[in-house]
Amino acid sequence: MSFIAEPARHTEVLGEFDVVVAGGGPAGSAAAVSAARHGARTLLVERYGFLGGMGTAGGVTNFAGLYGRRGGQMQQLVRGVVDELLARIDALGGLNAPQDGLQGRIRVRSYDVPAYQCAADQWLAAAGAQVLFHAWICGVAMGADDTLDALIVETKSGRRAVRARQFIDATGDADVSHLAGVPTEWGDGAGNALYPSTMCRIGGVDAPRALDAVGEFKAIERLMDAAAGRYAFPRRGAILRPQKDPTVWRANVTQLRNAEGRAVDATDAHQLSAAEAEGRRQIVDYLRFLRAEVPGFERATVLDIAPQIGVRETRRVRCATMLTAEHVLGGARFPDAIGLNAWPIEQHVDGGIAWAFPRDPDNACNQLPFGMLVPARIGNLLVAGRCAGMEHLGQAAARVSGGCFVMGQAAGTAAALRVQDRFSLGRLQQVLHQDGVELGQPAAG
User: Fold this and answer.
1) Is the Cα dihedral 394, 397, 400, 405 positive or negative?
2) Cβ distance 98 to 108 under 8 Å?
3) What is the pTM of this model?
4) CB 407 within 8 A of CB 338
5) What are the pLDDT digits (tens) for 268-295?
6) Distance of alpha carbon 48 from the chain centroid
């Protein structure tokens, strides 16, 4: 390896805040809204020119994990600041009715990406949070007593620093935590992680005929099996569902491997670059199959491809509590509950998707603990979203948008309370409850 020496520099401080949130996905946006609403001078730093994280930049186009079964009834279990976001997307005409799948065991809500982007802008502005777009976090400055002093960001104005009393890492890849030396984990410990996908939207679909042909998720797999000798499919478990406009469908059909055949590591620049091109290649191939083999897709076209691959798992921060598969499958309860996870374990494994559902089908949800937001070190840092304290299989459930909204609202609220020297677990839970969060029945003791 060769190196170059960079000169030392003095970095201009862009601003000083009570709370700085890194990453504008569901977790980061909910964190910034919550912190600002509770009186903290808040800045959200986002690498793209819009909010939404994997929901927009990754082309996910639906909210998963908002709904789950409790008391035998499918109902919305993730509430709080997310309700305002949903209302704003709906007011812009971009929110679809709930859609059920897997024999009624899951429920999602799809949306139009532009409506989400515009609604998120409104949401943050109404809360009084500032947003710095097109800012890439490239370093940290440490303070005394193992605390963070500032984030270093690259912007079109040059390198800048943003100072805060409290920080929230909602980057998905745990970029802040990694740069600060906080211990992280990756995958299952044996070199395997959840495979990423490249998402796209397909237009020109004859919706009635396509719905008859595809129907439930398993129907498209039968059509793929029948055509397997003529096409090379990267995975089974393809998901095709209509958007608000029924002639437009979201396609979750790709799977991205590295040169070793394992899941792409999206923190590796070379693997990430190769995966972007490979995802687009797979989309072209899959469109050929749809046009030739699936009724209703004869005149289909690719309307857009997500700006980046859809990443499901990279670094996860070691936290005071690590959410496990047993927590999800057993409907775990925690004395420090901050909300509910309503999504099953969804593993994107080599060649397909493996689902594992809670053992009690009538109460298919678990509480999420505050401890999963508290890193092993760095006293003024919280984490939220898919990089929070979860083991590999726990993350395969709580990584989706529903769980991320829960974690983000709790982290933002806790950060504001910390700034005001008013934080306690009991006060946090009380404020979350007052703000509409469904905590679930408190754990015994």
Assistant:
1) negative
2) yes
3) 0.96
4) yes
5) 999 999 999 999 999 999 999 999 999 9
6) 15
